[in-house]
Amino acid sequence: MKPINRLIVAFLTLVMSQMAFAAPQPLDSVAVQINDGVILQSEVDNMMADVKRNAAESGQVLPSDQALRTQVIERLILTRLQLQMADRMGLHVGDLQLDQTIENIAKDQKMTVDQLRKAVEASGISFSQYREQLREEITLGEVQRIQVQRRIQISPQEISALVKLIEEQGMKNVDFQIGHILIELPSNPTSAELDAAQKRAEAVLKRLNEGADFRQVAIAASSGPKALEGGIWDYMNINEMPTLFAEVVEGAKKGDIIGPIKSGSGFHIIKVMDIRGMQTQEIDEVKSRHILLKPSPILSEDRAKAMLDKFVKEIREGKANFADLARQYSEDPGSAAKGGELGWAEPSLYVPAFANTLNELKVGELSEPFRSSHGWHIVQLEDRRKTDATDRFNTNRAHQLIFRRKFNEELQNWLDEMRADAYIHVYDQSGE
To answer: pLDDT digit string (tens) for 169-196?
Structure first.
């Protein structure tokens, strides 16, 4: 054998012997199959680590890893189903829209984008991770708005009834922070399944009445939409909370535990975590006009912004009239024919990016182009005023409260329907 060949054989023998004795390297595995997509075990592990880290920072006690894993997988399933829907709709959040959103977030926190970046990185995640998390949040928000909003119908009678109630209350509002645990029932449950679920609900209620931590119990036992948040909903007025909550919390005191209450989805246990009162104050209103361009396969994000940059330049130089441009180009059907006029309104009635921009403008000032969930805008602030709670404001407020309540209800219905129609297979930890 030639020397060169002996060297090759020796090398190959060494490599093969090292491979034979090397420790196996763990690879990522599929935790869940959802339609034609998957959730990887690393995604489950990462979210569990995030939940544990947040719990440690807040001093929250968590249930067993098995219970926590079940809740995390459920959250990831619902998120992935919504992202799959966004893909089918062709909904994509581009970098330009993402940059605009980050600028708005920085402004809200009275920071520059660079300061925001440093704060994010100091929290332990990279800015690129933060951007992608934010992109996902925006996508979820938009797909929910598009899919759920069209399911909501509000009648004039509903608005009139609520306006009357608001007037009777003298615009005094009480906000409730609700804790919610749902012991879920299958569709068309048997009497045995019904009895078993009721017994579980009563056992949970007994633990709570004996002083168990509500958040820990919710994470371990609830099938509700806020389970991973310890079952805690943000502060809500009685008129905007889900109907089931509203029917039982009126007249309740802080700390009261109510239930189990049976509904079509299961047995509910509700705790009034906190109550806060709000007094009526004068309302700050703005009068404004805007031009809206909606990006599409024909009109790109860059092109929409460039058109508005051109409009701003021409208006400021006196070469074009705002109202004429709005009538010709604006894609807001409610204001385009009126030269972009939006009339008087409380800024909080608008989406955050639009409201924030208005709050920064001086009377008569024209904004630079900015992105909201509706598309690209320019807006001009025409005037500001303070006013009492007029009938018109009461009507707007009533519509907003009813919409929020119905949105929460229909969002859960839509998610349940999507989940029921999807192919979902959860693998055990051994990958079988």
So the answer is: 643 567 899 999 999 998 888 999 999 9
> Which stretches does DSSP call E strand in 279-411?
283-293, 341-345, 370-371, 376-387
Number of CB atoms found within 10 A of residue 285's CB: 19
Contacts 24+ apart (CB under 8 A), 27-30: 29/427, 29/431, 30/427, 30/431
Beta-bridge partner residues of 288: 343, 381
Tokens linked to 374: 């509706």
At 170, list the tokens: 């003298």
C-alpha to C-alpha distance for 358 and 2, rounded to whole angstroms: 83
How many residues can be counted in the chain? 432
Q: Using CA atoms, how far apart are residues 299 and 311, in angstroms rounded to an integer?
A: 16
pLDDT tens sequence across 13-65: 444 444 444 445 557 889 999 999 999 999 999 899 989 988 888 888 888 98
pLDDT for 14 equals: 45
Alpha helices (runs of H) in 59-188, residue ranges in sequence order: 65-89, 95-108, 113-122, 127-149, 156-168
pTM above 0.90, yes or no: no
Helix (H) or strand (E) holding 53: helix 41-58
Residue 181: which of 227, 247, 213 has the closest Cα? Answer: 227
CB neighbours of 343 closer than 8 A, spacing ≥ 6? Answer: 287
Do 111 and 119 contact (CB within 8 A), yes or no? yes
